[in-house]
User: Which sequence fits this backbone?
């Protein structure tokens, strides 16, 4: 994993979610996962066709999203269940929601001192949308590549007060 923000103290709050994404993809989907450059976001970010968003509360407030093209979303369902979908249906949406839930949950475990809570996943489907979160003090985009699709994780949050 590389980043243009190595000196950014907020990076320590992003690393658990980057690492959990790699772990979830490797364990649950039996796929290699390569993380691209972590990029700070100052405006909204264009997402793939299927995105699941999970809210974070507790010691920090924010949101995590997992985004993937429709074909990749269908491949996730097939890898998780053996079901071969022909379209983005309710089962595919459930699988993408579960991916975001696992990424957030595994990341949260590595940040126990913050006492984080995560919300239920919300899934967005569409071909041309931007997720815009101006309220977060820190916002980062993490592009990834697996052996079946590109995808990304977007993390926005307010840094906890010391």
Assistant:
């Amino acid at each position: 994993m590389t980043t243009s923000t190595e000196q950014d103290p907020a990076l320590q709050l992003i690393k658990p979610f980057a690492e959990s994404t790699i772990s979830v993809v490797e364990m649950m989907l039996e796929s290699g996962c390569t993380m691209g450059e972590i990029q700070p976001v100052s405006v909204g970010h264009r997402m793939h066709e299927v995105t699941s968003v999970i809210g974070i509360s507790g010691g920090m407030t924010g949101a995590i999203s997992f985004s993937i093209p429709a074909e990749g979303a269908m491949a996730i369902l097939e890898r998780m269940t053996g079901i071969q979908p022909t379209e983005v249906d309710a089962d595919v949406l459930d699988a993408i929601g579960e991916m975001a839930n696992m990424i957030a949950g595994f990341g949260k475990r590595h940040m126990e001192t913050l006492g984080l809570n995560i919300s239920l996943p919300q899934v967005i489907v569409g071909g041309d949308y931007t997720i815009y979160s101006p309220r977060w003090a820190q916002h980062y985009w993490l592009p990834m590549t697996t052996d079946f699709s590109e995808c990304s994780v977007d993390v926005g949050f307010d840094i906890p007060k010391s």
Q: What stands out?
A: Residues 1-5 have pLDDT under 50 and may be disordered.
